[in-house]
Amino acid sequence: MSPSANVQCHNFQMRPPSSQQALHTDATRDEWVDVLRGLVALLVVAHHAALMYGAIGSWFWHERTPDNSFSSLVLTFFCTLNQAWFMGLFFLLAGTYVPASIARKGAVTFLLDRSQRLGIPLLIFGCLLGPFTIALALTSKGYAMHDTLVALWSRGQFESGPLWFAAALLVMTLIVTPAVSWLKHLRSFPTNTTMGVAALLVGVSAFLIRLSWPVGKTWWIGWQLGYFPSYVVLFIAGVAGAQSRWWVDVPIESGRTWQRVMRCVVWTFPVMALASDRLAWLGGPAIGGWNMQAVVYAFWEPLVAWGIILSLLRWAQHRFAQPNPIYKMIGRSAFTVYFIHPPIVVTFGLVLSELEIPVLLKFFFSAALSMLSCLALAQFLLRSSWWRRWF
User: Fold this and answer.
1) Are the C-beta atoms of residues 374 and 344 closer than 8 Å to each other?
2) Helix residue ranges per DSSP H, the chain
3) C-alpha angle 292-294-295 in degrees, rounded to nearest 5
4) How far is CA 301 from CA 131, 181, 267, 295, in A?
């Protein structure tokens, strides 16, 4: 399953707040961060809709398989670009609230609470919604949904789907919590050199991991380990920057520098991939292995991710400092949308499968209908106090 959901400002302050001030400020979520999380959760919905229409990546149901058609190449680039940064952003923003929560609750209570808040949605999806989505997808092949669902449950089918994120976040939190008291004292925003070294290390790590665990190969609970170096680095960066609120006051020059890097680099991988048909030395599977495409892809991702993430943080803080009711609604719905979207995306894929229109137009309709339906259902579910407790 293609990796596919935790993520807050007051006015810009060039002087970092004191330790106690930072902890009290972090106790309440910044609305602009919630809005950003909600918008990216909707992007996850569109990302998975694209996989049904020719983008490279696994999903519950596909109408078209990837090929060299224009629509397939466009959707593949769309998903590849998303994958470079959007889950990493979720890990970064999740990390920013760990120190404040530990200070407020204590480490033991925090870990117990986090285990419940992440573990229960994971179990519900894995045991109920995941098998339901599989059974729904298999109706396209003539299988009775009820019979398929019973068969999946009878053999103990557990399908984590996008909730692999919850499991990964829980494990990272358990590992990092003992080091929070040290990490939170890293006050200065990382220099461009530090961020460049981090990108280099992420690229090297991703390349080496993908020699054994290429992109697309999952382990344990749906984890694609080839993407994890950037997730780990960004989660730790979120924790380290929580005390001084790095990600609230992203320096203008740092943001601009990495935005320029991103703009220069973002086209290199797709252009190289297209040129590989004519230049044999550029060939090889980008998903992993001793070849040029795998090397470029591994280093391309963090260089693109740093620029997009810093740009989005600055943009969201200014744009949603005082969000209107619609954006507040999107922010409140972030995790619910992320949780419920797989069967909704598959449903619209199946419903629109007989529609004879251009693929990109069908993708647009499918993604738009899925996003709107997820938001509508999320508002209904969030009326329940039980649902709000866990989502």
Assistant:
1) yes
2) 19-26, 31-51, 70-95, 98-105, 107-124, 130-138, 145-154, 164-176, 180-183, 192-212, 228-240, 252-265, 268-275, 292-319, 325-332, 334-351, 359-381, 385-390
3) 65
4) 32, 30, 12, 11
- Domain residues of the chain, as ranges? 19-390
Helix, coil or strand: residue 251: coil
Q: Are 57 and 51 in contact (CB under 8 A)?
A: yes
How far apart CA 290 and CA 297 sit, in angstroms, is 12
The DSSP-derived string for 188-207 is SPPPHHHHHHHHHHHHHHHH
* pLDDT tens by residue, the chain, 391 residues: 443 333 333 332 333 333 333 333 344 568 999 999 999 999 999 999 999 999 999 999 999 999 989 999 999 999 999 999 999 999 999 999 999 999 999 999 999 999 999 999 999 999 999 999 999 999 999 999 999 999 999 999 999 999 999 999 999 999 999 888 787 667 788 999 999 999 999 999 999 999 999 999 999 999 999 999 999 999 999 999 888 888 888 889 999 999 999 999 999 999 988 887 777 778 789 999 999 999 999 999 999 999 999 999 999 999 999 999 999 999 999 999 999 999 999 999 999 999 999 999 999 999 999 999 999 999 999 999 999 888 8
